[in-house]
């Protein structure tokens, strides 16, 4: 009886041992599966976190590229090609990072491309910044040159103005001035002899006699003298085709002659025959030469 009980007890103990081993194996398997699952979850979280970081990095690089374009610089062909290549690479990286799953190999390749892109954009922006500084320098030089040209132009204009004023003063100073202007009325006889008269009814011509005030600045050369005669009513007696310029305006003249000025006391005479009868009153005359007034005089015919 005792032996039988011992045999039963040994069998129960064996069963208990077997159950313990099975339970331990199950626990070990579950622990292995749990650890493996945690590792996979950690790897998945790590890949997703890195993907998010890379996406943010790519967006930052794109923003830096956009900031360089806000400078509104005219880029060289090479810089334009480089920028276009960078934007294409950014678009490819964005598309790659937006995929649902990424392997570790994909992630490693993306990390390398982002580093290269970061370095490229940094160099690209340095070139653009240098280009901006060069443009600023050139603009400063251009503005300085414009200012210099403007200053020189102003000086030139002022000099031309002063020269014009000086020339005007010289011309005025060199202009001939008539002295001792005397008007005499004559009657012309059939024999051609001139008889001085004072009556309008008998007068046929006016003779204007004058000398020239000595002037060292005046040209010792031929000068054209223009004569303007006004009747007692104030009308200019002139042919409308006879035009000249003096005192800054164009006007008509009655008669003209050329005199040879030599700087001495030579007396000059201008004769004018009236094609119409004289009327009673005061006749006035004005003499001009070289664009300026020479002198004035008047005569009264009774």
Automatic annotation (TrEMBL):
Residues 44-71, 114-148 form a coiled coil. Keywords: Coiled coil, Membrane, Transmembrane, Transmembrane helix. It comes from the Bacteria. The keyword Membrane applies. The keyword Transmembrane helix applies. The chain crosses the membrane at residues 16-35. This is Chromosome partitioning protein ParA. It comes from Pedobacter hiemivivus. The lineage of its organism: Bacteria, Pseudomonadati, Bacteroidota, Sphingobacteriia, Sphingobacteriales.
């Amino acid at each position: 009886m005792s032996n039988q009980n011992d045999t039963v007890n040994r069998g129960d103990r064996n069963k208990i041992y077997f159950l313990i081993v099975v339970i331990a194996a199950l626990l070990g398997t579950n622990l292995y599966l749990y650890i493996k699952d945690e590792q996979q979850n950690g790897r998945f979280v790590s890949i997703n976190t890195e993907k998010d970081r890379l996406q943010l990095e790519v967006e930052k690089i794109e923003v830096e590229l956009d900031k360089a374009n806000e400078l509104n610089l005219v880029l060289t062909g090479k810089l334009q090609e480089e920028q276009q290549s960078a934007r294409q690479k950014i678009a490819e990286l964005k598309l790659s990072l937006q995929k649902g799953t990424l392997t570790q190999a994909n992630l490693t390749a993306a990390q390398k491309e982002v580093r290269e892109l970061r370095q490229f954009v940094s160099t690209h922006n340095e070139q653009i910044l240098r280009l901006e500084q060069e443009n600023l320098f050139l603009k400063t030089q251009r503005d300085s040159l414009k200012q210099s040209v403007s200053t020189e132009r102003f000086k030139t204009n002022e000099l031309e103005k002063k020269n014009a004023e000086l020339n005007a003063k010289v011309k005025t100073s060199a202009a001939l001035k008539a002295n001792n202007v005397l008007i005499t009325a004559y009657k012309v006889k059939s024999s051609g002899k001139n008889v001085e008269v004072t009556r309008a009814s008998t007068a046929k011509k006016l003779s204007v006699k004058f000398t020239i005030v000595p002037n060292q600045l005046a040209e010792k050369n031929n000068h054209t003298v223009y004569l303007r005669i006004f009747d007692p009513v104030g009308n200019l007696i002139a042919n409308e085709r006879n035009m000249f310029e003096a005192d800054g305006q164009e006007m008509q003249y009655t008669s003209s002659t050329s005199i040879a000025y030599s700087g001495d006391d030579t007396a000059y005479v201008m004769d004018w025959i009236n094609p119409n009868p004289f009327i009673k009153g005061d006749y006035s005359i004005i003499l001009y030469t070289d664009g300026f007034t020479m002198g004035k005089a008047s005569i009264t015919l009774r």
